[in-house]
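During the second year of the project, the team shifted from modelling isolated chains to modelling whole assemblies. The rationale, set out in the original proposal, was that interfaces cannot be judged from single-chain predictions alone. As a representative example for this report, we include one of the complexes processed in the last quarter. Its constituent sequences, exactly as entered into the pipeline, are reproduced here:
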Amino acid sequence: MASSERFSVLVEVRLRDGIADPQGATIERALPALGLSGVSGVRAGKAFWFDISAADETDALAQATEVADRLLANPVIEESSVTVNPAGAGI
Amino acid sequence: MGARIGVVIFPGTNCEHDSILAVERLGASADLVWHGDTSVAGYDALILPGGFAHGDYLRPGAIARFSPVMDAVGRFAADGGPVVGICNGFQVLCEAGLLPGALQKNRGLRFVCATVVIRVETGDSVLTAGVPVGTELRIPINHFEGNYTCDADTLAELQSEDRVVVRYVDNPNGSVDDIAGVCNRARNVVGLMPHPERASDPLLGSVDGRVLLSALLASAASPVGATPA
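Output from the structure prediction step:
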């Protein structure tokens, strides 16, 4: 019987290129007030952390990708990236 | 006998009673349908009203889409039953894949609460059947995420298939192509950001929403695909 391991997952969700990101733009416009004028390309997004039980890292990545694609991101306007590490290794 | 309307509610829905009152005044009967219900049998049409289903957590409509009732709504729609999503209900229908596209945050990150003018762009949908194209209606909007967007192919398809149901005359939120509401290919599922139920009594400042709700009730009486008598 396949043993199950625990993995730590990070899913980052951001707006697709071409989708207006008024939140990122607003943050960028606020930065000069801090005296920082060299910051550009600010984009706002979301991050999700969770643990997952899976047979191996490939299986964990497949499951986490399904969570990202079917729930955490709306593919019409968002894209996501998934990072998987063995539990305890940090993320 | 008037049409029987199911008004689908999720935790956080808040326009259900307005919707019920508006259609009852037009001669229909209406009941609340709880999001945990697994059947919508017996209804002639469904309304998914506005509000903040599941607190709009993650994205508006993203969690509501997984409610048990949404399978029943999907089957009802697949069978040709009229389904209208208003505001948050529109967002739920998009997340559920019953309508194309998505509603993103308004241009300028501005919550907009105002009465706007929308123009009916097709008379071929359950919400606009019999309404002359070009009819302008004063209807309130009340949303933060009403900025309709979709990819270029989907937009071209909506345009060529005459599936933009209503457009803003003066775009308040940045929606692509001024879109305020769209329908599915079968034309029996419609979503729109404006609230017709809030324009259904002179006390509310406009009765223009009755035009759309009356069309829905008429569609409920003779659904798309029904054999003409």
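The helical segments of chain B are 16-25, 68-78, 88-95, 152-160, 209-221. Residues 209-221 of chain B form the longest helix (13 residues).
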